[in-house]
Amino acid sequence: MEEQPSTSSEAVPEKTMGTPANVSGSLTDVTPTPYRVLAQRSGRRTLRRHFLRMIRRVALLLVVDITVISAARTGLSALREWSPPSEVVNWLLPSGVLGGPSSFVAIIVGLLAMGAYMQGDAWNEATRVVKGVAAGAGLALWTGLDATGVALTTVRWVSVVLLLGTLLVAFRRILWNIGSSMYAHFGPTERVIFVGRPTEVDARSLLSIAESRRIEWLGWLTEALDVEGHLGEPAMVWEALSNLSPDTVIICGELPPDEFQSVVEAATVAQCRIFSIPRYMEITSFTPQHVSEFGVEFMVLSFPAFKAGQLMIKRAGDILASSLGLLALSPVCLAIAVAIKIDSSGPVFFSQKRVGFGGNVFRMLKFRTMRLGADSEKASLAHLNRTGDLRLFKIDNDPRVTRVGAFLRRCSLDELPQLFNVLRGEMSLVGPRPFFPEDLHQYQDHHFLRLAARPGITGLWQIRGRSDIIDFEEVVALDRKYIDSWSPLLDLKILALTV
Questions:
Q1: How far apart are CA 493 and CA 427, in angstroms?
Q2: Which of 28, 76, 78, 84 is the most buried (most CB within 10 A)?
Q3: Helix 122-142 vs helix 150-186: angle between axes, to the nearest 10 degrees?
Q4: Regarding the domain delimited by 13-54+188-303, which CATH topology (the fold level of the hierarchy) does it fall under?
């Protein structure tokens, strides 16, 4: 058994962290599977909270930027009327520079393109602001290049970058500090869990976090039993996430590699922000970046707020495409329904319970391709399953499949009713493969990450040869790859290859 840390070195002074909020005693270790499912489901609420915080941040920064750019334009107009600086100002920044609405829009677009509204530390944020101004100013001045020449255009471009870059960085910092102070007093707090050994972290960092009015401290997951707010060991992270629904997990100091990986994966499933003080570990699919929060420099390992924005874009595309698809393919669906009724007795549609986004169970629709009672024959045919894994039930020349059903399966036409699932928000056009609820009891920790997106009618598993994939870990790897690298272009590529 691993030696317990000494109480004298591991204790956390009461004045450092105070008393955790809404925690009565330690967590109790029970059957792990329900906690993993509950953590996955609570992640949807956490994701919404992160997204709202991101919207508030972007809105505040946009107000600052618009105000500063407008003030700079007004100031330049006044300087052009004064003497003697009017001649210099008119030569460097004439009325055509930053004067029209196109220049204004170009600067904002440049800031958006360079990520100036994303979270980061002070240095990275300032760098992105300057890059955004440079890109926007270059776009605005490009149209006058032929008339003014390269040399003069370059001088004016540098002048705009220096002027607006300096003003935006300075006023962003001033007004952001004021806004953060007001938000700390009047805005909702952020629920935080700490994982690791407190004494491995600089006490000043803990004190800075404790004094922040923006957080609601929930407690520690640590092996040190004498720590105030002790919730259990780090291995109980799933229980903590499902019971307490934190927004953020802060990893303190060193953790064993397997334990560190488990904590990061669990927090990712629950859609928590993940910070590390002061070290981090490179893990597949997690890209650490610097960020300043609560007055402390962290390594952040996830950005769930950005993921929420991606999900909104993806959902909008699904609604549009599924609506158009149902309208365009309705004659085909009608012909298939008639063929099914003629070929065999039974209903046209077939539905099964599947696990969707956040671990929620829904009924997935298909055109019926098997004879009635096919599900009851599954156990008697299990010996023919060529994968050896009940989660991937594949039988060559399955005797339960009807003649029309075999044709529909070859052409993947049996999947068309799933457009209704897409329209209802239960599925997506492209996504991970949907599995059965009973499979959750066989999931390992890293399998739950595939539930971070709506299941798809098609996906990487489809275009990589779904009939040839007989290893569940390969399916999980493809699903994880899709989630980690999602983009609208990737969805279009998968849809094109599927067709």
A1: 18
A2: 76
A3: 140
A4: Rossmann fold (3.40.50)
